[in-house]
């Protein structure tokens, strides 16, 4: 058998149930992979070997006793470090939370524990999930397993690097403007932003509450569906979580795309997109068409305003959410003569540059005299965008575009100019503003050998058709390449 | 019209202590970003209601029942300063 760290979740689960693999053996393979690659990648902030070992031993005992908790039982899964884990340090990639040990588990962490998953540890991220490259972590950047001179994308870059290289079989990230999908695209993975409210945000350290969603990163569409199924559902601790039945996420994965209406989003599949990305995207659309989908170009004009709208709304919400980091209840405190001075010193010292920039932007956009022209106007444009998308979904079942305008860029390439970095989010922002689900899957590599991502968007609670299209395109594309770091350094015993 | 932010005022509102050099740098960056962001003002939005939340939802009620909360000791253990079951901060009553 190949190294167990390279198995998909589905294949590892099957091997465990056939008695060919134990959860402990699987964890050992994953930990071995981490020990070989972490020095190059820095995917993890905390690798919880003892906790993972205990969970794997428990999974083996339960499975031996016939207590099967389902497809994630015994599977090593990593968590982005903005998801609270009781008893395990949770930093959100920020100096202001260094050493913070949450007194509770995030709802998704509880769900994964209940599903018998083996939680391997906490992965690196842009501070408070603000960034597109994982270079904004207070604890140093993560590198891309396909080329360690390049970024893994962000903000869930640690989760993406870990799954790509095999130091976890799947991971959770959070997606506020593309932070699951873009790193998935740049690391050759499947990444999902679920419908807003499908997954509880309880215990996710908040960035922008009307945009944040937790989602899975995995190596296949099927694995991503398994992970999403395990974390989806109403939660009494999150007032914005959706009541009622969870959509049948993976029900259509074997159905094909015959007769489905697929819209190529005009505004995101031309100008501003790299030529090789566009060529691969066009080829993938051609395959869907050949497989029986009805493909049409669909224009959603308000998408042109997605970046300015997002970069007013997200910072506004962030400035409100991050007010809680004041040196009183948790995390860093820097002394001052008065309480207010202590708070200002703590925040000046504890936050990194991108977080400060966004808090300042949001504070300005919400301040008296500017509120209506900036934040208020952005909210009204968000309404116009909703109308445009609603009209588009009258014509088609899903909308498709590239996930990222380029493949992985070099470390340091975009750090000097914040606006340049923001522009790299153009394809992923609309789904967060709209609330509907979106998925990225790999469809090939560019000439430099870097993965290219394809995005499928659907209307709210349209997970089933989104996964249906993604699964068919995955079959048609046959993307099975693994990053150099996963294959060259690992030899089978 | 180019945007010019009173950056010191914004930093004060946000309760973030910054050096003069930092203020100057963030000021230039905010002006640039907001110059770009004010593109949203080009769209006519008269009579368009704002969207604050992507999903149509109203109040989410649950029964008002007493239940266990987080362990106080575990919560206070994370505080930079705590005494007698309280968070402690510098005195505030003498502040101007």
Describe the structure.
The complex is a heterodimer of chains A (493) and B (96). Chain A has 493 residues and is of the alpha/beta class. In chain A, 39% of the residues lie in helices and 12% in strands. Chain A is built from 16 helices and eleven strands. Chain A has helices spanning 9-17, 23-41, 49-64, 107-114, 157-165, 181-186, 221-231, 275-290, 306-321, 339-350, 353-366, 372-395, 418-423, 429-434, 463-477, 484-487; strands at residues 44-47, 76-80, 118-123, 170-175, 190-193, 213-218, 261-265, 294-298, 398-402, 438-445, 451-457. Chain A has an eleven-stranded mixed β-sheet, sandwiched between helices. In chain A, helix 4 (107-114) links the parallel strand 2 (76-80) and strand 3. In chain A, helix 2 packs antiparallel against helix 3 (49-64), helix 2 (23-41) packs across helix 5 and helix 9 (306-321) packs across helix 11. The longest helix of chain A is centred in the C-terminal third of the chain and has 24 residues, at 372-395. In chain A, 63% of the residues are buried. Chain B has a domain at 3-41: Histone, subunit A, CATH 1.10.20. Chain B has helices at 7-13, 20-37, 72-76, and strands at residues 82-83, 86-87. The two termini of chain B are 38 Å apart. With 96 residues, chain B is mostly helical. Chain B is flat, with a radius of gyration of 22 Å. Chain B has a two-stranded antiparallel ribbon. The model of chain B has no long low-confidence stretch (mean pLDDT 92). Chain B contains three helices and two strands. Chains A and B meet through helix 9, helix 10, helix 11, helix 12 and helix 13 of A and helix 1 and helix 2 of B.
């Amino acid at each position: 058998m190949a190294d167990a760290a390279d198995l998909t979740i589905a294949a590892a689960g099957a091997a465990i149930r056939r008695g060919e693999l134990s959860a402990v053996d699987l964890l050992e393979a994953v930990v071995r992979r981490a020990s070989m690659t972490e020095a190059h990648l820095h995917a993890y902030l905390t690798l919880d070997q003892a906790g993972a070992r205990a969970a794997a031993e428990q999974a083996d005992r339960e499975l031996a006793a016939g207590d099967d908790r389902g497809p994630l039982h015994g599977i090593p899964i990593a968590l982005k470090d903005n998801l609270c884990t009781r008893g395990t340090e949770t930093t959100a990639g920020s100096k202001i939370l260094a050493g913070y040990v949450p007194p509770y588990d995030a709802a998704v962490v509880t769900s994964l524990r209940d599903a018998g998953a083996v939680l391997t540890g906490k992965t690196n991220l842009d501070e408070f999930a603000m960034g597109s490259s994982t270079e904004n972590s207070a604890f140093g950047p993560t590198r891309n397993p396909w080329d360690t001179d390049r970024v893994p994308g962000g903000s869930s870059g640690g989760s993406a690097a870990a799954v790509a290289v095999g130091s976890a079989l799947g991971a959770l990230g959070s997606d506020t403007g593309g932070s699951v999908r873009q790193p998935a695209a740049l690391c050759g993975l499947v990444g999902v932003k679920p419908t807003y409210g499908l997954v509880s945000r309880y215990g996710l350290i908040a960035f922008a509450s009307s945009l944040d969603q937790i989602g899975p990163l995995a190596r296949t569409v099927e694995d991503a569906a398994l992970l999403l199924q395990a974390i989806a559902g109403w939660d009494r601790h999150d007032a914005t979580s959706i009541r009622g039945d969870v959509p049948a996420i993976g029900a259509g994965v074997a159905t094909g795309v015959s007769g489905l209406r697929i819209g190529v989003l005009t505004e995101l599949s031309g100008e501003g997109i790299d030529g090789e990305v566009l060529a691969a995207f066009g080829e993938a659309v051609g395959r869907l068409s050949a497989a029986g989908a009805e493909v049409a170009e669909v224009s959603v004009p308000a998408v042109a305003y997605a970046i300015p709208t997002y970069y007013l709304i997200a910072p506004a919400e962030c400035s409100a959410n991050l007010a809680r980091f004041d040196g009183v209840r948790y995390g860093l405190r820097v002394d001052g003569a008065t309480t207010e001075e202590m708070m200002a010193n703590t925040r000046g010292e504890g936050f990194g540059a991108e977080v400060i920039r966004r808090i300042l932007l949001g504070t300005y956009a919400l301040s008296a005299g500017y509120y209506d022209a900036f934040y208020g106007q952005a909210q009204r444009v968000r309404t116009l965008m909703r109308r445009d998308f609603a009209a588009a979904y009258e014509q088609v079942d899903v909308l498709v575009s590239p996930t990222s305008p380029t493949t992985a860029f070099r470390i340091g390439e975009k750090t000097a100019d914040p606006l340049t970095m923001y522009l790299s989010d153009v394809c992923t922002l609309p789904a967060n503003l709209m609330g509907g689900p979106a998925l990225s899957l790999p469809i090939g590599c560019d000439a430099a050998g870097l993965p290219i991502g394809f995005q499928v968007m659907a209307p709210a609670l349209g997970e089933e058709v989104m996964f249906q299209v993604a699964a068919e395109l995955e079959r048609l594309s046959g993307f099975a390449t693994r990053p150099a770091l996963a294959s060259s350094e690992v030899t089978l015993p | 019209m180019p945007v010019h932010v009173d950056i010191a005022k914004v930093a004060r509102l946000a309760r973030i202590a910054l050096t003069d050099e930092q203020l100057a740098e963030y000021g230039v960056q905010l002006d640039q970003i907001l110059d770009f962001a004010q593109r949203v003002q080009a769209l006519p939005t008269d009579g368009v209601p704002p969207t604050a939340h992507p999903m149509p939802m109203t109040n989410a009620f649950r029964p008002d029942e007493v239940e266990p909360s987080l362990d106080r000791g575990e919560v206070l253990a994370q505080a930079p300063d705590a005494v007698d079951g309280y968070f402690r901060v510098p005195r505030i009553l003498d502040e101007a």
